[in-house]
Design goal:
This protein is mostly helical and 208 residues long. It has nine helices and no strands. The chain has one domain.
């Protein structure tokens, strides 16, 4: 039992270099969010953040641990915001603003809108998970050996290092989606109450 716990601990500490973690993460994010609701995508992303936060602590990286964790999962956060934005703006995007209530009653036109919404979310999820898989593969190629991380001097803060094009794109897009979500009552026909209701429906763990 102790050996199993030790192996599990090493696996979690070195999760970024583990192909099994990437497969499990992608599968859970895709299947649960598409088959049930967006709540489970948020839950999977939060679980990844908790694992990363714990892993940093075990490696002795204690300064700005929350900031490092958020930076590490920034692509996941962008995906969550993109999916929530889509739920708020889908009527506007398809030129049927004002039909948000009907879109949840099974009307024929609204059913097509919901089908398109699910399809677009599926594409967003697939693109994001492909990016995560590529990131994991690149990380393994840069020296991940599966022996677990070693305690060392805290690395420099990632956001103070030169940003790559991926970092810039992710941060700008995340900020844009966050602003658009906050401006939903201004840009769309949804009131604040309507927007909160849509978000609550999208984030309900069991929407059936």
């Amino acid at each position: 039992m102790r050996r199993r716990l030790a192996r599990a601990r090493r696996w979690l500490l070195d999760h970024d270099n583990r192909l099994t973690f990437t497969i499990i993460y992608i599968t859970l994010a895709l299947v649960l969010s598409m088959a049930i609701s967006m709540f489970w995508l948020v839950a999977v992303v939060a679980a990844h953040g908790i694992i990363e936060y714990w892993s940093l602590g075990k490696q002795g990286v204690l300064d700005h641990r929350l900031g490092r964790t958020l930076w590490h999962i920034k692509l996941d956060i962008m995906l969550v915001l993109a999916a929530l934005w889509l739920g708020l703006y889908i009527d506007l995007l398809f030129g049927v603003a004002g039909l948000s209530a009907a879109a949840r009653t099974g009307a024929q036109v609204s059913a097509r809108v919901l089908a398109w919404q699910r399809a677009i979310r599926g594409v967003l999820l697939s693109v994001d998970e492909a990016a995560l898989a590529a990131k994991a593969a690149f990380s393994r190629g840069q020296g991940g050996n599966g022996d677990g991380p070693k305690r060392a001097q805290a690395p420099p803060l990632p956001w103070r290092q030169p940003w790559g094009w991926g970092d810039r794109l992710t941060v700008v897009t995340t900020t844009l989606f966050a602003i658009l979500i906050l401006l939903t009552p201004v840009i769309t026909d949804h009131s604040v109450v309507d927007a909160l209701r849509i978000l609550a429906e999208d984030l309900h763990p069991w929407p059936f």
